[in-house]
Amino acid sequence: MSDLAYLSSARYGKDAVRVFRVVREGSTHTVVEYNVKVLLEGDIEVSYTKADNKVIVATDSIKNITYYLAKVSPHILVPERFAVHLGTHIVSKYAHIHKAFVDIEQLRWSRIVVGKDRKPHPHSFFRDGDEKRTVKVEIDGTAGKDKIQARVSAGVNDLLVLKSSGSSFTSFIRDEYTLLKEVDDRIFSTSVDLNYTFAPISISPPKDEKKLDIVIPALDQAEAGSVWDATVLDRARTITLEVFAEDESASVQATLYKMGQRIIAENAGVQTVSYALPNKHYIPVDMSYMGVDNLTPAKAEVFQPVAAPSGLISATVSRK
Ligand SMILES: O=c1[nH]c(=O)c2[nH]c(=O)[nH]c2[nH]1
């Protein structure tokens, strides 16, 4: 049996670590809520092949490190930076762990505005939608602990949009399988998953282990700071919404490409932009048996939203 198989890859860690953090500046509070996944790679084969647990940082400890850094990291409010800090901390601390993969999903807590002058409340928030900000970070220490590379990507998931006009779909292949009618006006709805990547950056963690929890020098440099501030997300989200609204869409594919092109053009640090766009179909209800026209595009007013199946259009647009 032992001749037939070998361990070709291994990665483990903790998923769905739920973290909520309050940052207090006097009476003004800022809050973040994250779902964190931390997976590790390294010299961990024997834990699988020889039942030897000596190489295992317990997934419970991985969870505890996540909470500890949520308490002490100066980067907690920026998920890209927090993910890099968390992954770098682990890869720096454990000699036999060479890579950390940290994924963060940030849930929305927006400030409630109150009173006649619509003032943002200092410590009250509401969940304004299911959309999540997402971050994926790979911390790679395989070239040495003083030459750590961070590969960062970020984006949004579950941003639900719909337009009731400005979308057509014509001239596609017609053959014996084709039922779909050509339409010059239709409903276009999708739940945007967007992910954009940055060029890798080098990180030199402090040699003094006690300082690991406080600073990562590279993260405090202007270059890294300007690449990862929230304005990239704001611009990418705004571009996505604007192109969606304003494009006279010939197809989900064509609109997706325009979105990606504009994000690359307007964000110098972004290398690739990937979208996954489900085409959430809205079917005009056939009322012809009642003598009511609800099928001609200009007369179509009542639609049946169809949960499944949906089209799924995805692509990556890259900087040349
Ligand atoms: O924008 C679209 N792209 C497709 O590939 C497709 N296929 C389909 O049935 N409807 C649509 N709409």
UniProtKB/TrEMBL annotation:
Urate binds at T59, D60, F169, R186, V252, Q253, N279. It is found in: Peroxisome. O2 binds at N279. The keyword Ribosomal protein does not apply. It catalyses: urate + O2 + H2O = 5-hydroxyisourate + H2O2. Catalyzes the oxidation of uric acid to 5-hydroxyisourate, which is further processed to form (S)-allantoin. The active site is at K14 (charge relay system), T59 (charge relay system), H281 (charge relay system). 5-hydroxyisourate binds at D60, F169, R186, V252, Q253, N279. It comes from Lentinula edodes (Shiitake mushroom). Its main location: other. Keywords: Oxidoreductase, Peroxisome, Purine metabolism. The keyword Oxidoreductase applies. This is Uricase. Gene3D superfamilies: Urate Oxidase. One of its GO terms (molecular function) is urate oxidase activity. Transmembrane segments: none annotated. It comes from the Eukaryota. Its EC number is 1.7.3.3. InterPro entries: Uricase (IPR002042), Uricase_CS (IPR019842). GO terms for cellular component: peroxisome. Pathway: Purine metabolism; urate degradation; (S)-allantoin from urate: step 1/3.
